[in-house]
TrEMBL record:
Signal peptide: 1-18
Coiled coil feature spans: 230-257
Organism whose genome encodes this protein: Pelosinus fermentans B4
Top-level taxon of the source organism: Bacteria
Lineage, highest ranks first: Bacteria, Bacillati, Bacillota, Negativicutes, Selenomonadales
Protein name, entry field: DUF3829 domain-containing protein
Alphabetically ordered keywords of this record: Coiled coil, Signal
Alphabetical list of InterPro entries matching this protein: DUF3829 (IPR024291)
């Protein structure tokens, strides 16, 4: 049986937070503040599952296959999750990601306002996430790092592989189940802050959030295709061009204003925040490259295209442009949370 490495979810929904000074202006409700924290912690866990965690899972399954029985290549010479990482660093990854990605959702899960069944489904997702990263970053990583397979002829490796297949399947099912339940909440939040930001003249924040929204539309479009078993090359060209142009337009508007000193002062950005804002814009440029590669490939009906972006980030190879776009969108969400929204 095959494992689905790509999560069918709308996890790249927007983090509808506001700068601390903006949020005080737009809403004095502590309930809404709790809602924002809770909502964001749920989104960040989904981003982690769809982005980085799916990537490292794919790295493993590309090596050993997605079937119930492990596929050991004749030329196998060892497996290291991160070739450039120190082993001590590898051992600590479980604790790092558990602390960062499942602690906050668990903390806010019981907070008001209640999300009903969504809260229970999030706990299940946290449990499955913790179980998978513990298996991968403790048992599997150490087994191959210590070359135990040379001593037992992959006996333990075969058992670990079966556990990996089952654990990742359960994780993906939990994520899909949560995403389905959480989608109405995402729609409820989506764009809720934009009118207030525009009314106050906070245009840097307005367009930063608009970039995230339109980036989510692109990601959602391909999530929908994949949930139907289709490849991104089968996307409706006119539909993709519409969301592609919207995203590029929002990036263009942000780039016109994000360095304006008067506007920065008006919105309360400190000098320390400016470098992070610059990085936010740089990340959007990488997303534009991936989105343009995607457009050219859809037009050509193949990933084997040559264009102005070839060799920069995404064209061809195993890191196809939609995956690269999602990865950078997840990065953008982190940057938004850690700079623009604070």
């Amino acid at each position: 049986m095959k494992i689905r490495v790509v999560l069918i979810c709308i996890c790249m929904s927007l983090l509808l937070t506001a700068c601390s000074n903006i949020s005080n202006t737009l809403s004095n409700s502590s309930t809404k503040g709790d809602d924002i924290k809770k909502f964001n912690s749920y989104i960040e866990l989904l981003n982690f599952k769809q982005g980085w965690l799916s990537g490292v899972a794919k790295f493993y399954f590309n090596e050993f296959g997605t079937g119930e029985e492990i596929n050991i290549k004749k030329e196998f010479s060892g497996f290291i999750l991160f070739p450039t990482a120190e082993r001590e660093g590898e051992k600590s990854l479980y604790g790092f990601h558990k602390e960062r990605h499942t602690k906050l959702p668990r903390k806010y899960q019981a907070d008001r306002p209640s999300y009903g069944e969504i809260d229970d489904k999030m706990l299940t997702l946290c449990d499955k996430t913790d179980a998978f990263i513990e298996l991968y970053f403790k048992d599997v990583t150490l087994y191959y790092a210590n070359k135990e397979y040379e001593k037992d002829n992959f006996a333990k490796g075969r058992e670990l592989h079966k556990k990996m297949v089952l654990s990742y399947r359960e994780l993906s099912e939990a994520a899909d189940d949560f995403s389905t339940a959480f989608y109405p909440k995402m729609v409820e939040h989506e764009g809720a802050e934009l009118p207030g930001l525009k009314k106050k003249g906070f245009n840097i924040h307005y367009y930063a959030l608009s970039v995230l929204l339109s980036g989510r539309e692109i990601s959602h479009m391909f999530d929908t295709l994949e949930s139907g078993g289709k490849d991104f090359l089968e996307a409706d060209l006119a539909q993709y061009e519409e969301v592609y142009n919207k995203f590029n337009s929002n990036v263009s508007e942000l780039k016109k204003i994000y360095k304006d000193k008067d506007q920065l002062k008006k919105e309360g950005y400190s000098a320390d925040q400016v470098p992070f804002l610059n990085q936010f814009v740089k990340t959007t440029e990488g997303m534009q490259t991936a989105a343009t590669d995607t457009l050219n490939m859809i037009k050509a009906g193949t990933t084997e295209v040559k264009n102005e972006n070839t060799g920069k980030f995404t064209t061809g190879g195993r890191s196809y442009p939609v995956g690269e776009f999602r990865r950078r969108l997840g990065q953008l969400v982190d940057e938004y949370n850690n700079s623009i929204s604070e």
